[in-house]
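ZP: hey, is the shikimate-3-phosphate complex queued? I don't see it on the tracker
AM: it wasn't, my bad. submitting now with these inputs:
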Amino acid sequence: MQSYTIKPAKSVRGEISVPGDKSISHRSIMLGSIARGVTSVRGFLRGEDNLATLGAFRAMGVEVEDDGETLRIKGKGLHGLSEPSDVLDCGNSGTSMRLMTGLLAGQRFFSVLTGDKYLRNRPMKRVIEPLSSMGASIFGRAGGDKAPLAIVGRELAGTAYASKVASAQVKSAILLAGLYAAGETEVTEPHLSRDHSERMLRYFGADVDSFAGGVRVRSGRELEGKDITVPGDISSAAFFMVAALIVPGSELLIRGVGVNPTRTGIIDILTAMGASIELLDRREISGEPVADILVRSSGLHGIEIGGDLVPRAIDEFPVLCVAASCASGRTVISDARELRVKETDRIAAMASNLGKAGVKTVEKEDGMEIWGVERLQGCVAESFGDHRIAMSMLIAGLAAAGDCTVNDIECIATSFPDFIPLLERVAAR
Ligand code: S3P
């Protein structure tokens, strides 16, 4: 088990770019593989999660050339994937497993998906249930809820599914199955979750339309290979945004970050807490909005966070908890039950770690209350095998009165392999 000890910083300054967006990188492999012709992907995130998706499609006969900068995916067309000769290992990646379950349900072959001990413990019924209503044949442990999942590809029929959770993984699994299902497939959700699948499907020429509360796909149209430039991941930028906000005397410019409105909840929340964040040079790349983000250290105050802001910032709550710990007054997070079924239970994990840093928290079933402190204490924190918990506690360490050690940090490689060197580059001591 690897640990890292971070020392407090005097300031966080400079100009950086963060690695490519994880969600968009997954989708570029998936759609590139089932499109006709070549898809080239620049800025692909080479984290373990995305490499798991890449490995799975290679195992289904897709040729992908990689010159270290650009991936060239030789698409097989909608019906060109071949039966994998072994189990497909999704590692820690919920996105790989849930989206591929949708895509594999309509293939003319058998496949099995597995993952690491964390992923094998995460709920899969949320995709299996709607896919089964389309005629899919999927088997799993724990009464069909847990991986390994065995998928017997079948003919599917379109559906209209009203999802109870705002989950892009659920929505995307159904849309990908919908490409293979007879007729029309519709998904509605209580709040809009990230819409990268809809955008990229449209970019590849699929017959997709979004409407208030949902999205619809009609099968029958081949996808065409495209050039994709993946923007920087706002979920990775979020760690650096919070670092610059909570360490006095900081100013940081983060270049080329994806600012899709379904992902910018973090900016809205931090701004409501008093943060100075500016979006510069807004542009659009491969169907996604992009900007440079300028952050200056700011006095933050506690706020109440809930409702449709939650899915728009769903992966940022661990680091938002750190921001709240350095804010004056109380922050209340509600409507965030989903945090309990992420890579770990992120409510319990952050309550435990922040307690060690001297912060008072109260867990709620759907969130938590956090009372900010003058100064965090040095501490020994645990990652719980979750990359975002590990990175959040390293950010907390920059603003603490003493050294912070984070244990079990290998998981950072799932989404941000060079996080620590980049953090050390901008942290002045
Ligand atoms: C993702 C969707 C979100 C998010 C995850 C990536 C995606 O999960 O937490 O990191 O790429 O579709 P849910 O769909 O479970 O909310």
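AM: back. The longest strand covers residues 276-285.
ZP: great, adding it to the tracker
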